């Protein structure tokens, strides 16, 4: 039943050259199946951000292969990477990254702006955005601007935006990092729901209780995977060890 | 991303900062308006010259007496043309329409109970109407007989006649020029102001009368300072000038080394004025071009600030699938829109400004229609040229770095 969505082989990222070269990732191998919910954890400097950037096609690996949804995207040009990001990836950021002067619907419509070949009209785009906002439970606040929404609501708008182009994968970078406990829990429930509906999710977090929502945790340290395929509950010691014994 | 959508996004970007966008546009507005007004001003100046050509009469030759005395000391006889020489010229030169001379004076003019101060009194001859292509409306002009006898008659300019006599026919009435009482024999047609001369505000009298009554003999006496000769056509100009040269040296008894007069054609004066106007226009064009460039630099400056300010937005758009090309186009269109809106408003300001100068200013302007697309096109080029660099900078941003920027 193997149906890989993400395959990375020997993924290496080196910053700088010669004697000042720093390896952020060292020959990482990993496979994410369709429909999986994966958390990426690790202490700061472990390379999880770099890994996430490469998975998000925002950056290219120095060496190694990255196959996303059957397409080798390791060495695509900037323009091609933009197309891949637009069609296959939905981003959810820690700080939401909504455009402040656009209302919720227009923010959600943004990715469609760069997908003009889909042959749909502006009205259809709008309908799509409205449907996406309703799906994340924001049907009532469509025409509010970001500063009129709470953090949790803003993150819902961002999730709706991530879903709009029906991406193969949703990449969430610390999606609850700026939220209080209650909003965090709501957002995680929403991601859970998406996962149940068949979405593939990859999430970076440094909070164990957030990682617990995922099926599987990939744990990075010094640019290498030191633990994979385990549920969060099994890596408590590892996590606490890297965080100086605290919770 | 489609072009029309990029256009919309760019417009929204500009509307985010209305005041700043307007101030940036102002540079282009001023530049474009300057181009249009400058060209209108120089076209107006050229039209003025063209009018002067017509007013002077076509194919005019001016003979200026150099008023020097032949021989050393005060005892020598002056070599200058006299009124009687005009007849000699008229009878001996072939290919001319008319000959006239002018001697001006300034006097108060009284008539019908009204006094007008400091009016130009133009002493002239019968040839005046031919030389200047300027005719009487009522009555008659000065005749040779009037000059031979220094008759106390006057022909009024159109405005003078209106001011002194209103609806009454001035012909046959009398006016007092200074202390000399004259009979009005005619009124000139309306001609208006040409160059600096207001033809309608003058009184025309026999030149001999001016010599006799208004010019002190010590200041030149009856010497003609300028003699106007009007040739029949452009083709005979050279021949007429040659004949004049020979004849005048005969009359004055001078030779080539010191002829005692100089000849200037109207064309040479026009050429000189035209080249002055051209220099003026070139200078103004440069000033206008420089202001457009300054406006463009303003646009570039603001676009660079905008790119820096909106780095995060650029990063987000890239993450969501904007290609470098899309980002570049968005910012380039913002710059071009700034300059085009500036161009449009500048055209309106330029056309309006030219009109105001003409109506209320002391300057004559004539709108050069071709300057509108020229200025507008230049504004567009400025937008593209100065918008290209900031837009390229925006497109070059690394989405990871851009997204992280606060």
How would you describe the overall organization of this protein?
The complex is a heterodimer of chains A (247) and B (406). Chain A is an alpha/beta fold. Chain A has a single domain, classed as Rossmann fold. Chain A has helices spanning 48-55, 78-88, 104-113, 122-135, 151-163, 181-196, 208-211, 236-242; strands spanning 4-15, 22-33, 37-41, 63-68, 71-72, 89-92, 169-173, 200-204, 216-221, 224-230. Chain A has a 6-stranded mixed sheet, sandwiched between helices. A 4-stranded antiparallel sheet of chain A has the order 2-1-4-5, covered by helices on one side. The mean pLDDT of chain A is 90. Chain B has 406 residues and is of the alpha+beta class. Helix content of chain B is 56%, strand content 18%. In chain B, strands 2-3-10-5-7-6 form a 6-stranded mixed beta barrel. The longest helix of chain B has 44 residues, at 266-309. Residues 69-77 of chain B have low confidence and may be disordered. At the A-B interface, α2 and α3 of A face α1, α10, α11 and α13 of B.
């Amino acid at each position: 039943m193997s149906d890989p969505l993400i395959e990375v082989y020997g993924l290496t990222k080196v910053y700088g050259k010669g004697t000042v070269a720093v390896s952020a990732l060292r020959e990482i191998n990993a496979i994410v199946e369709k429909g999986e919910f994966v958390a990426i954890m690790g202490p700061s400097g472990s390379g999880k951000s770099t890994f996430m950037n490469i998975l998000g096609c925002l950056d290219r690996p120095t060496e190694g292969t990255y196959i996303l949804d059957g397409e080798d995207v390791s060495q695509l040009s900037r323009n091609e990477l933009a197309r891949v990001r637009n069609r296959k990836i939905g981003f959810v950021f820690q700080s939401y990254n909504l455009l402040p002067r656009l209302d919720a619907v227009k923010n959600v419509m943004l990715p469609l702006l760069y997908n003009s070949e889909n042959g749909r009209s502006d009205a259809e785009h709008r309908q799509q955005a409205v449907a996406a906002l309703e799906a994340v439970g924001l049907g009532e606040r469509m025409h509010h601007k970001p500063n009129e929404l709470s953090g949790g609501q803003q993150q819902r708008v961002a999730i709706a935006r991530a879903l709009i182009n029906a991406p193969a994968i949703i990449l969430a970078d610390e999606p609850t990092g700026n939220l209080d406990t209650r909003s965090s829990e709501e957002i995680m429930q929403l991601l859970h729901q998406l996962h149940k509906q068949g979405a593939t999710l990859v999430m970076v977090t440094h909070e164990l209780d957030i990682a617990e929502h995922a099926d599987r945790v990939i744990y990075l340290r010094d640019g290498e995977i030191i633990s994979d395929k385990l549920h969060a509950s099994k890596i408590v010691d590892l996590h606490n060890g890297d965080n100086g014994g605290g919770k | 991303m489609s072009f029309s959508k990029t256009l919309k996004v760019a417009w929204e970007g500009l509307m985010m900062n209305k005041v700043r966008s307007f101030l940036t546009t102002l540079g282009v507005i001023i530049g474009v308006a300057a181009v249009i007004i400058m060209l209108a001003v120089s076209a107006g100046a050229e039209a003025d010259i063209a009018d002067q050509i017509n007013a002077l009469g076509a194919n005019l030759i001016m003979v200026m007496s150099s008023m020097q005395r032949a021989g050393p000391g005060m005892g020598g006889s002056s070599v200058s043309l006299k009124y009687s020489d005009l007849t000699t010229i008229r009878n001996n030169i072939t290919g001319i329409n008319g000959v006239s001379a002018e001697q001006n004076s300034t006097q108060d003019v009284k008539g019908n109970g009204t006094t007008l101060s400091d009016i130009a009194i133009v002493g002239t001859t019968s040839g005046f109407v031919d030389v200047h292509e300027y005719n009487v409306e009522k009555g008659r002009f000065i005749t040779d007989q009037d000059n031979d006898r220094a008759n106390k008659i006057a022909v009024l300019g159109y405005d003078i006649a209106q001011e002194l006599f209103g609806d009454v026919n001035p012909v046959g009435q009398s006016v007092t020029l200074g202390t000399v009482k004259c009979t009005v024999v005619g009124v000139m047609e309306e001609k208006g102001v040409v160059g600096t001369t207001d033809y309608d505000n003058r009184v025309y009298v026999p030149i001999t009368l001016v010599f006799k009554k208004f010019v002190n003999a010590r200041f030149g006496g009856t010497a003609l300072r300028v003699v106007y000769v009007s040739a029949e056509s452009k083709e005979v100009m050279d021949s007429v000038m040659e004949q004049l040269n020979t004849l005048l040296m005969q009359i004055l008894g001078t030779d080539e080394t010191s002829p005692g007069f100089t000849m200037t054609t109207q064309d040479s004066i026009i050429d000189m004025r035209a080249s002055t106007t051209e220099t003026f226009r070139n200078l103004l064009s440069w000033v206008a071009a420089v202001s457009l460039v300054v406006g463009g630099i303003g646009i570039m400056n603001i676009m660079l600030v905008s790119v820096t300010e909106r780095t995060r937005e650029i990063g987000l758009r890239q993450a969501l699938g904007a290609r470098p090309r899309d980002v570049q186009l968005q910012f380039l269109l913002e710059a071009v829109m700034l300059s085009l809106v500036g161009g449009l408003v500048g055209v309106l300001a330029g056309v309006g400004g030219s009109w105001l100068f003409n109506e209320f200013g002391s300057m004559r302007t004539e709108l050069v229609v071709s300057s509108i697309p020229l200025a507008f096109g230049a504004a567009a080029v400025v937008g593209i040229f100065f918008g290209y660099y900031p837009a390229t900078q925006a497109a070059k941003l690394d989405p990871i770095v851009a997204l992280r920027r606060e």
